[in-house]
Amino acid sequence: MTSDDLLARHRAVLPSWMPLYYDEPIELVSGSGRRVTDAQGRSYLDFFGGVLTNMIGYDIPEIREAVQRQLATGIVHSSTLYLIRQQVELAEKIARISGIPDARVFFTNSGTEANEAALLVATNYRRSHQILAVRNSYHGRSYAAMGITGNRSWSASALNPLQVAWLHSGERLRGLLSRLGPDDQVDAAVEDLREVLATQTAGEVACLIAEPIQGVGGFVHPPDGLFAAWKKVLDESGILFVSDEVQTGWGRTGEHFWGYQAHGVTPDLLTFAKGIGNGFALAGVVGRADVLESVPAISFSTFGGNPISTAAGNAVLDYLLDHDLQANAARVGAILADGLRSAVGGLDCVAEVRGKGLMLGVEFVRPGTTEPDPAMTVRVFEACKAGGLLAGKGGLYGNVLRMGPPLTLTEEEAREGLAILVDAIRSSAEVPA
Ligand SMILES: Cc1ncc(COP(=O)(O)O)c(C=O)c1O
Predict the structure, then answer these.
(1) Cα of 40 to ligand 1 centre, how many Å?
(2) Fewer CB atoms near the end CB (10 Å): N or C, the chain?
(3) Mean of per-residue pLDDT scores for the chain
(4) Residue 210: pLDDT above 80?
(5) What pLDDT does 175 receive?
(6) Residue 170, class by beta-carbon neighbours within 10 Å (0-12 exposed, 13-18 middle, 19+ buried)?
(7) Cβ–Cβ under 8 Å, residues 95 and 286
(8) What is the pLDDT of residues 373-425, one digit of tens each?
C-alpha cells in the first residue's frame, strides 16, 4: 500500500479538524534512537518527538523490555480497584521528585485529563469555580481544558464549566511586556494580576494555572521569577498555583527538572503527561495531600496508571535519572541554541530564538517588523523535512518553528540537525514572499 492510499483513506474516515503535518503527509513506520523512517524509506532525524512525547527516543531496550515483562504476566489491565505495584512505585517516585511536600499522585491517560483532575481538586478545595488562566496557553481539549486555553485556534467551543479571567502571557515581542525593560516586566505582570483579581473576579478564586514555557503557544515564556511574584499575591487570599508541566517537565529545560523551578516557587499542584510514558498513554496530577484529598465523591480512571503504562513510566523515569538526561538537555540544547543564534539570529526575518534546554523555538516575522510570517514558517518547516529533519510548528500566529527532540539527543545529532535547520532557514529567507 502506498502512502497516498493511506492519505485518501485517512481523509475519508478521520475528521478534518485533526490536522496532518506537511503538504505531503508521511507515515512513520519504524524508529530507533532519534531517527524515524517513513513508508517511502526516507529517514529523518526527529526534533519533535511526536510533540515532545518520545522523550527518551525510539525503541529503547530498557523501556521495551519493561513493557514486555508486564505483558508476559498476562495482566495488561486490572483497574484501580486492585493494587497495581507498578503504579504505586511510580507514584512514590513522582511524589518524591515533584518538590511538593507530602504529595499525592493521581494518574490519568492524557494531559487534558490531568488538567481536568487538577481543576477538579482545586475547585473542590476552594469551593469556587473561578480560575485564572494565561493568554496564549494550551491545556487540552475537554470543555474545562479548552476553557482555560487562551488560543482561538484551539478553542473549539465556548462552553465552559469554569469562570475564567485572563492574565497577560510572558510574550515579550508584542503586548504588555514588550514595551518594558526586563526589570519592569515582573512588576507589570504582578500589577496585571492584581488588576484582574480586582476587576474580573468575585474574589475566592480557586487557582491560577500556567505553563512555565507555553508549548502550543510557541515556547513563549515569562521572565524567570514571575511565578514566585504571582504566588505572593495569590497567597494573600489562598489561591492555589497549578504548574502545567506537560511539556516542560522531566528535565527538558536543562537548567531545572521542572519548569516551575526557574521561578523559585513550589506549586500546589503539578500536571504531567507526554514524555513520562515515552509514547504509552500516561499522565497525571501530583499535589499537596490536603488539596488532592479534597474530592468529595468517588472518582477514578479506568485506564489511568494501568500496569502497562506505569511499567513504561517506571522504566522511562529510571532511564532519565540514571543517564542524567537533564544535564544532556542543558549541554546539547546549548549547542543548538548558540548555533541558531549565531547562524540565523541576525536575519531580519528571525524575531527571536528562544526557549530552554531541548525546548527551542524560532519565531519568524516580516523583515524588520514584529508582524508574524506564518508563510515563511511553513517554508522552513517543509525545507527541514526535505533536508531530513522533523520539527514542529506553533505560536498564536503559526509563525514559530518548534524543536523538542528526545532528551537523549547526542551532540553529533544536534550539530547534524542544526546544519539542516540553518540551511532551511537561510534558503527560505531568500525566497520572495
Ligand atoms: C501544556 C499542555 N498541557 C496539556 C496538554 C494536553 O495533553 P493531551 O494532548 O495529552 O491531552 C498539552 C498537549 O499538547 C500541552 O502541551
Answers:
(1) 30
(2) N
(3) 97
(4) yes
(5) 87
(6) buried
(7) yes
(8) 999 999 999 999 999 999 999 999 999 999 999 999 999 999 999 999 999 99
Q: Are 422 and 343 in contact (CB under 8 A)?
A: yes
Mean pLDDT, residues 113-141: 98
The alpha carbon of 273 and the centre of ligand 1 are apart by a number of angstroms equal to: 7
| CB distance 379 to ligand 1 below 6 Å | no
The grid coordinates listed for 339 are 548555533
CB 130 within 8 Å of CB 202: yes
Rounded (10°) CA dihedral 281, 287, 290, 292: -20
Cell matching residue 75 = 495482566
**Cβ proximity of 242 and 271 under 8 Å:** yes
Task: List the alpha helices (DSSP H) in 127-225.
Answer: 143-147, 182-200
Place of cell 487570599: 237
The three cell numbers of residue 67 are 513493557
The answer to whether the pTM exceeds 0.85 is yes
Here the cell at position 53 is: 512525547
Measured CA angle at 170 (ends 101, 135), to 5 deg = 90
